[in-house]
Amino acid sequence: MEKKYFVHESSYVDDNVELGDGTKVWHFSHVQSGTKIGKNCSLGQSVNIGNNVTIGNGVKIQNNVAVYEGVELEDYVFCGPSMVFTNVMNPRSEFPQRGSEFYLKTLIKKSASLGANSTIVCGNTVGKYAFVGAGTVVIRDVPDYALVVGNPARQVGWVCACGTKLSLSNDPDSEETAKCSKCDREYKKHNNKVEQI
Questions:
Q1: Which pTM value belongs to this model?
Q2: How does DSSP assign 126-170, residue by residue?
Q3: How big is the CA angle at 60 (ends 156 and 195), to the nearest 5 degrees?
Q4: What is the pLDDT of residues 152-184, one digit of tens each?
Q5: Are the C-beta atoms of residues 129 and 143 closer than 8 Å to each other?
Q6: DSSP structural state of residue 93
């Protein structure tokens, strides 16, 4: 039976792995047992996917990223070059903490973008269409459509589904609407949450 995905000859895919149609695993990467990867994903050079990870459709993982057990990536997530996930809150080499009972769940929701060299500390959720700037360190949940930067991450605005910054204030009490200057999608902000109209 012909494979409908591509794995470079320098990469390893363990037994008990599901790879969706059109997915590509590039140079020097490793996909570990129990992992499910959806359709049309791209895993760049030197990517490591840990055991029992779930990755949706259309996900792009750039070079030098490790997605550890306990992390879930929904559809169309973008992981920038050399960004980092953790999965244990207080790691110690002398006292190893291995296994699902020690790993804190990290969820990256649909179409969120994680910039180059950003760090997502375990146990947090990054909302759908959120944008985490390059070098940002996420230590708490990020709302849907939020733009966050810095160490630790702080919200500096809101973004459209297409990634364009919206003209919505950061005032948590404001009730506003805005239209994307690039694609004309419309949004409303209510109770410090943004949703598409």
A1: 0.96
A2: E-TT-EE-TT-EE-S-B-TTEEEETTTTEEEEEB-TTSPBPS---
A3: 40
A4: 999 999 999 999 999 999 888 899 999 999 999
A5: no
A6: S
